[in-house]
């Protein structure tokens, strides 16, 4: 392979890799959140979906009326923003969605059982798009 074709091949590969490193800017939902522990690894409560919710972006999860959801954190809203919680759908009927954690509007659910009354308030992590750019 001569130098010009090698350089051309390199440029094509570079352009293709740059295409995959793009990220979409997503507004931060809140600056603080309430969790059961400092890592948000324990469940705060159980909730039941009151209505269907279709996820608006990759940070959110779909809910169907009657779904049971483990709630891991509750975002403290920025003024004018909706209140979002993060959680995971639970149940044998929802195997395809179990383990997927995402945000959903708190007004779509009814908290049915509180597991952890004592909670901690911690800052939210950096925006997802910054993490994606850093990791690529």
Q: What is the string of helix and strand elements?
A: HEEEEEEEH
The structural class is alpha+beta
Shape: globular
The profile of the biggest β sheet is: 7 strands, antiparallel
Oligomerization state: single chain
Rg on CA atoms, Å: 20 Å
Question: What's the N-to-C terminus distance?
Answer: 29 Å
pLDDT averaged over residues: 77
In helices, the fraction of residues equals 10-25%
Relative strand content: 25-35%
How many E strands?
7
Uncertain spans: 127-132
Number of continuous helical runs: 2
Q: Please, could you describe this protein's structure?
A:
- There is one protein chain.
- With 136 residues, the protein is an alpha+beta fold.
- Helices cover 19% and strands 32% of the residues.
- The protein is built from 2 helices and 7 strands, in the order H-E-E-E-E-E-E-E-H.
- The relative contact order is 0.24.
- Mean pLDDT is 77; it is low at 127-132.
Give structural attributes.
136 residues; alpha+beta; seven-stranded antiparallel beta sheet; 2 helices; 19% helix; 32% strand; globular
Brief overview:
The chain is built from two helices and seven strands; from the N terminus they run αβββββββα. With 136 residues, the chain is α+β, with helices and mostly antiparallel strands. Strands 1, 2, 3, 4, 5, 6 and 7 form a seven-stranded antiparallel beta sheet that branches.
């Amino acid at each position: 392979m001569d130098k010009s074709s090698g350089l051309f091949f390199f440029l094509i590969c570079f352009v293709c890799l740059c295409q995959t490193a793009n990220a979409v800017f997503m507004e931060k939902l809140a600056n603080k959140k309430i969790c059961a522990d400092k890592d948000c690894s324990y469940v705060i409560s159980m909730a039941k979906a009151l209505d269907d919710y279709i996820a608006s972006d990759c940070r959110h999860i779909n809910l169907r009326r009657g779904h049971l959801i483990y709630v891991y954190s509750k975002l403290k809203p920025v003024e004018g923003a909706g209140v979002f919680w993060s959680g995971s759908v639970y149940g044998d009927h929802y195997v395809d969605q179990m383990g997927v954690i995402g945000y959903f509007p708190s007004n779509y659910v009814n908290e049915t059982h509180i597991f952890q009354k004592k909670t901690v308030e911690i800052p939210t992590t950096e925006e997802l798009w910054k993490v994606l750019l850093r990791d690529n």
